[in-house]
Amino acid sequence: MFIAALLVASTAGAEDLRSKILEKIPESKRLLLSVTEADEVKIGQQATTNLLGVAPLVKDDGLQRYVNTVGRWVALGSERPDLPWRFGVIESADVNAFAAPGGYILITRGLYASLSDEAELAGVLGHEITHVVERHQIDVMRKGMLLEESRKAVEKRLDNNKDELIRRLVGSGAELFARRLDQDAEFEADRKGVVLAARAGYGPYGLPAVLQKIASVAKTDDRVQLLYKTHPAPEERLRRLDDAMAARLDKYDRPSAGGKIYPLH
Amino acid sequence: MIVGGINRASVLLALLLIGCGNDAAQKPADNRAQSPATAQAPAATNAVSDAQAATPTKSTGASAKMAPTPATVARDTELKEKPFTDAKTLKRLPARTAVTIVDRDGGWLKVTAGGQQGWVRLLHVSSQPASSGGTSTDELKSAAKMATGRAGSGNIVSTTGIRGLSEEQLREAKPNPQEFQRLEGYAASKEQATAYARAQKLERRQVAHLPGPP
User: Fold this and answer.
1) Which end of chain A is more exposed for a tag (fewer CB within 10 A), N or C?
2) Contact A254 B106 (CB under 8 A)
3) Does this complex have an ipTM over 0.95?
4) Which residues of chain A neighbour B27 with C-beta distances below 8 Å?
């Protein structure tokens, strides 16, 4: 009951009421409902292991090490440089990239093949890194889980261990990656993603260039269906990026910065 | 074909052009160091005069760098002589003006608009969706190439018939712990990432996050 009220309070923006309710929840239960960094990593590991069951890694050690190196460098400029960051290219024609809590980021072969240079890779990874840094998935999971299950769960006290909470948050298989995040979270990830690329020494226009390519694909194309289901339209993302960027990052524009993008075989 | 196929020469040209207009001090030696000869002054002069001379009659030269791509101006903007804000405005382009993209330089696209060539901000241009009907055999072939990643042309070719990931597939995913172990094995340490960045002359820069919408 506390939890139901808590949700109402937070959606209504009544922060005072929310904190009053939080005070009434015993410490043990608060811990149960909180998601620590270690929990994030466990959730990410499980969800990623499941996603790899659908789409395994592309069999190219050099490629996988390359995206890990570039990804780690970009993530080092983020507010959470010390997460166990892992990056991979997965065997799928789908045009998409996925972030799981704790620092697990996978990009499809379909999207990787569309990249022209390392700045574009850095921009895409910057967007995904931001989802992890800002705990966007955790926000959505907790909302969903709290709404549907938590009252029951807390009342019945059947979840007096973290594993059960994590199991519920991960859900079935890799469905986590089919969940639509808060749409503002996507715009935020674009906005912060271009900055992470610029912090890493790349030009900031890699991500917008990739979004333009995605916008040029027919919306009926099967390979962008999941992306369109889970993200705002690329045209809208570009419009918002234009509002946010204007000419603010132009002094960081360095079109050929970085190494040569690792070729797919 | 928005950003594909820009060759090294055009990238260098782009860098040189930018060097002319922006605060050069903001741009310490980067990849130009890999091609020292091209970065010398005489080359720069030629590059700039080439770009200034670029007109629609020279569009064959541009298309050698990048296949011309039809697009639309997304909002009222300006066609600039060079790819930077302070460059001379050639003409105003109202929203929905049809343009043809011929090259890209960071945040700028080189376009032809009404027979005139110039530069427009990348974020002011919207790429038109490729025709969704009547996919040709050629398109399917190149899409199949893309799907296997052999093309590497930096484009996404529209197609039907190549499957993406479905929600159902994801929901029913079974864990693959062996693949997960492989993923763990590819991790890059801070030191490895930093060494790579140093080798590529990627500088860490202090950049504040952008303000969100009001």
Assistant:
1) N
2) yes
3) no
4) 254
